[in-house]
Amino acid sequence: MVILNSLFSWFMKKRIHQIELFMKYPHDVQEEWFHALIASAEATEWGKQYDYKSIYTLEQFKERVPIQNYEDIKPYVDRMIKGEQNLLWPSDIKWFAKSSGTTSERSKFIPVSEEALEECHYQGGKDMVAIYCHNRPDNKLFTGKSVVLGGSSQINSFMSDSYYGDLSSILIRNLPFWAEFKRTPNLEVTLNPNFEEKINDVAKITIQENVTSLAGVPTWNIVMAKKILELTGKSNLLEVWPNLELYTHGGVSFKPYVEQFKKLIPSDSMYYLENYNASEGYFGLQDRADSQDLLLMLDYGIYYEFLPLENINDEKPQTLSLDQVELGKNYALIISTNAGLWRYCIGDTIRFTNLHPYRFQISGRTKHFINVFGEELIVDNADEAIRKACKETSSTVKDYTAGPIYFQENGDAGGHEWIIEFDTPPKDIELFKKLLDKGLREVNSDYDAKRYKDMALAAPTIHIAPNGTFYKWLKSKGKLGGQNKVPRLSNDRTYLKAILPFIKT
User: Fold this and answer.
1) Which of 109, 146, 481, 501 is the most buried (most CB within 10 A)?
2) Could you tell me which residues come within 8 angstroms of residue 183 by beta carbon, excluding any fewer than 6 positions away?
3) Contacting residues for 65 by C-beta, under 8 A, at least 6 apart
4) Where would I find the GH3 middle domain in this sequence (predicted)?
5) In whole angstroms, what is the distance from residue 346 CA to residue 469 CA?
């Protein structure tokens, strides 16, 4: 195993030079991919509709092709699901990622081409490992196995050779042999659609293995970890897996989960790396352990545009190219990809923290925010304020959601209503509420202005949710496991009304 570990580490390190090249020449790499994508799709139905053969510049592309959302491409997706090909992309599309980035009843099916699998999603996974090996040359990662807690996958009802499922399940089902060799447990257990049954089986099987790495959404990994400790009677995961050294995570901000993982894995040498891998593509990864910023990955078959958040509702919004972005501003991410998504708005917002090379942080969602009173509160603000309040009160938050309290007819100010499920609750909830409010005012000047003398916004209202509240709510919607997650913020009371009854049951 030691020889195998050295061989894998050497192979992964070879990629570092290529990463350094796109960091040095980012605009050239993006321009090359723009022209390559346009040329590849010339003969598709979409390419003919917008006459891709005559597109030579980005300006022509932006003028000719409007920004798309899922409703715009859904007719094409429906036809692909039924077997039609060469619509958005020239190669056959047989896989569709069922988007669970939202807990709404309506599902989205994002096309996943062979190119997207190999050149984007799998390349991102390999790069994550390559960067880890580069940053920690004495690692023993490949002496053991990895536990990847993914979702479920099934054959859809339209075609016998057309499949859909969570992106994680699609990736697991199509893993190359060498990656499958280093993973545990087997496919049947990993892709079990019954999440509670799967968690129990994964725990029973993996406690017998030498696990060196974990991967997946923090929420569900915590559920798995607690099941393992329950079965083994151990106090932390290192007593079960003494060689555990790496956890790669994504899907939600890691800030609310840091303290929980420190308790589950009490080691200063444990390495945490974040990745930004959505159904639509793999966009970024954390290349430095001492910084939470993500490196924008520029050679994965994706061309990026950036739409200033303040212009998102313009009649004809104007996007910026990579060389036009500024530090500290929130941009909606617009992508064109090697799976046939063209000028597609994925619904995420990012904020650049560095321009040489391009590093960023995920700041929220274009639809997950609160701006009823002009406070422009985004998920990044909420996560940071929660983190500060937890630190000051020695508490840890498991999950939360928040929405508006509208102005009352009697003239009372509006406000924000929070449902918070604690793993370690604060001894003084009123102090926590004051610190949360203080943290929000510190990170968001618009919120601070609206809170002035309680004129527009009153202090937050907080409901402490009993343990398991959000789990029960997600279960009631059939949304356990995979990439499913609790919506942090909403501009209306839809989620609050749906979750509040679970507090009383």
Assistant:
1) 481
2) 145, 146, 147, 148, 172, 175, 190
3) 50, 342, 343
4) 296-365
5) 29
